[in-house]
Every structure is written in C-alpha cells, then in structure tokens.
Design goal:
The protein is mainly α. The protein is built from 3 helices and 2 strands. The longest helix is centred in the N-terminal third of the chain and has 21 residues.
C-alpha cells in the first residue's frame, strides 16, 4: 500500500471517529481473538494463526489509550 493511501486512510478514520464522538451516541464493539499463544503463529502455514500474548497485550494498551475497555458481560451496561 502506498504511503499516500495509508495517510488518506488514517485521515478518513480519524475524521470519522471525531464525527462519531460528536453525536454523543454510545456504542460498543466486541473484539475477538481466536487464539493466543506464547509465540506468534505462522499465517502462511496456519488457517487461524495464534497471536503472541505480548502482541495481544500491546493491542490492549493501544486500545485503552482511546477507548474504555470492558469485559463482554459489562458491555450492555457500559453502552446504556
């Protein structure tokens, strides 16, 4: 993917996020990881390659910078 296309996608994504937050609507999203392991799986050799636990933890840290993370059983109350 070209650098220009990446920048364009980032600008569009951030703009949409900003506009969505202006509405004040509360919404929830469930993110599912199918497999976690001590080391990264090989997507070239596995149908559903596992993510390393360290990568999963880094994803959670990144998401927590922008969103309030809740457990799945807390989601209905969090968006009410």
């Amino acid at each position: 993917m070209s650098a220009l296309r990446l920048v364009t996608r980032l600008v569009v994504a951030r703009t949409l996020l900003f506009l969505m937050r202006l509405t004040g609507r509360r919404a929830g999203l469930i993110l599912v990881y199918h497999a976690l392991a001590g080391r990264e799986g090989d997507p070239a050799r596995e149908i559903v390659a596992a993510h390393a636990v360290a990568r999963f933890e880094s994803h959670l840290r990144l998401l927590a910078l922008r969103y309030r993370l809740v457990r799945s059983d807390e989601l209905p109350q969090a968006v009410a």
